[in-house]
Amino acid sequence: MDNIDKKLLTIIQDNFPICSRPYKEIGKKLGISEEEIIRRVSKFKDEGIIRRIGGVFDSRKLKYKSTLCAMEVPEEKLADVVSIVNSYTGVTHNYLRQHDYNLWFTLITSSENKLKETIKEIEEKTGFKVYELPARKLFKIKVNFYVPGLEEGEKDFVK
Amino acid sequence: MLSELDKALIRKLQEDLPVHPQPFKIIAEQLGMSEEQVLKKVKEFKEKGYIRRMGAALRHRRMGLKANPMIIWQVPSEKVEEVGQKLASFPQVTHCYERPMLPKLPYNIYTMIHAETEEQCFQLAKEMSQVVGIENYRLLFSEKEFKKTSMRYFVEE
Asked: At the top level of CATH, which class does the domain A3-55 belong to?
């Protein structure tokens, strides 16, 4: 990954231009052609570094309800529980973490009722309790990441 | 209120934009809209805050950010506001929430960070701890990723 790649990844994370020729715009910022940008972006997609390009929506603004859930699942039951939990569209992230509460997932649904129902259903299907950790207060949410290896002074070039 | 066309556009935008010189034109054609209409709507969604961010979702693990702990903090209720603000101000913190305490996990502020190594995370957690004056915290590293997707709204199950 060269320096242009790193800058490209930084820009494309949250400054994807909303215009007719977005890749041409990005190219102007980086001093390379539209074709070259498209070639590099395609490569990142093939390699799996870019998962998708699109909009990240604010669930609260769209009137959806979300929560964080934790479960305590014995290791031998983990695979079964994971496949049940992952089968829900509203489960977007699911991780194994180092604690007695070892399974941590986020759940987003279209209403508070649906949230309760889904949690109850997961408990019934798996036989384990789901601990709910709804956000009482949001201090920060920022879903773009810094690209490792970009020099300190270079991180500001997109502003 | 969102119209049916708004929702159809949101469904498109939560998929993967085609890697094509004019991606919004392609979406517009699929929805029977003009490219100008789509661009205007997308800008409007962004201004209204429906779209928090427009761009690429990366697999941070593949970029070398392999250490992804939740750092959880036990904070006295009267200090939650102050400590929450201070923790959120660290650029490495991507998420910061107040959450209820659990029986076996009596911590009430949750922060997420992403770094290249576990050592970097411990070091950062220590710095954060010193800044906010909270000594009771722990790092819960993710050992395995079972699912990571983007939410798809207005797709009824």
From this structure: mainly alpha
Of A24, A54, A140, the CB nearest to B16: A54
Rounded-to-integer distance, Cα A106 and Cα A93, Å = 5
Q: Which residues of B touch A146 (CB under 8 A)?
A: 91-92
Nearest C-alpha in B relative to A86: B147
Q: Is residue B119 part of a domain?
A: yes
Two tokens at B140? 């819960």
Complex ipTM > 0.90: no
Contacts of A72 in chain B (CB under 8 A): 104
Whether B152 and chain A come into contact, CB under 8 Å, resolves to yes
Residue A158 Cα, gap to closest chain B Cα (Å) = 14
Per-residue pLDDT of chain B (157 residues; tens, 9 = 90+): 899 999 999 999 999 999 999 999 999 999 999 999 999 999 999 999 999 999 998 887 777 788 889 999 999 999 999 999 999 999 889 999 999 999 999 999 999 998 889 999 999 999 999 999 999 999 999 999 999 888 889 886 4
Please answer whether residues B72 and B140 qualify as being in contact, where contact means their C-beta atoms are separated by less than 8 angstroms: yes
State the Cα–Cα distance between residues A33 and A23, nearest whole angstrom: 8
Inside any domain, residue B155: no
Residue B134 lies in a domain: yes
Which 3 state secondary structure label does DSSP give A135? coil
Q: Do A143 and B53 touch (CB under 8 A)?
A: yes
Query: Count of domains in chain B?
Result: 2
Phi, psi of B71 (to 5 degrees): -105, 125
The listed CATH number (3.30.70.3460, 3.30.70.1890, 2.40.50.140, 3.40.50.300) that belongs to domain A65-133 = 3.30.70.3460
The stretch A23-36 carries a mean pLDDT of 96
Distance from CA of A154 to the nearest CA of B (A): 15
Shared domain for B67 and B38, answered yes or no, is no
